[in-house]
């Protein structure tokens, strides 16, 4: 909002009837409301039918009658963080393990060859786009030229305003050091002659693959004993994992020497 606070969307509930009206509230404003979960049971007329509904009120989890509910979550995902929403089958995980998993995702360094997950939650593309590391088309058009460091788009006639240039040029970031000493490198996904729409992803950044977030690698894993080599927390790796640089990362460090 205008004060810099993050706001979250909620559906308005009146006398147990869930309306299509959407309101945006900050964490301070939502505390006084009785907020039902997005998974609350409704009938065909969008009326809450459970005798008691699981709600959040005054920063506490409790149950209340449907008539007391004032708001309802828009999506089940909005009660968890971005990192937690990337964990598949989160509802089946132990809370402590989900906490560890969401924290460890923030510590991931970009691999040499990003590999998008075979099993995901559907949030991977949104996170990659919102992270700002991908190159997103400002206007639709046709790819005029593309190389490793630059993409030129000839903008469609219906998207060119009077007095504006009919060409968009996107300069890609190549092998630049990040604040964490990791490597920032953007790779084009389009070819000359391809048609792109507004907001299409045209180039991958670090830890993205085909416009999707790719923090790790797709591996075949076995939970088994293997001659005692994986005793307790030890793990055994195939030699091919090393040969194919599956978990290889590039780190760039700047050192200054005064003679």
Q: How would you describe what is shown here?
A:
With 259 residues, this protein is an alpha+beta fold. Among the domains are: 7-78, DNA-directed RNA polymerase, beta subunit, external 1 domain (Rna Polymerase Beta Subunit, Chain: C, domain 4); 133-210, OB fold (Dihydrolipoamide Acetyltransferase, E2P) (Beta Barrel). 11% of the residues lie in helices and 26% in strands. It is built from 4 helices and 17 strands. The strands form 5 sheets. A 6-stranded mixed β-sheet has the order 2-1-6-3-4-5. Strands 10-9-8-14 form a 4-stranded antiparallel β-sheet, with no helix packed on it. A 3-stranded antiparallel β-sheet has the order 7-15-13, with no helix packed on it. The protein is globular, with a radius of gyration of 24 Å. The chain starts with 6 loop residues before the first strand and ends in a 16-residue tail after the last helix. The relative contact order is 0.12. The model has no long low-confidence stretch (mean pLDDT 94). Residues 10-75 form the DNA-directed RNA polymerase beta subunit external domain.
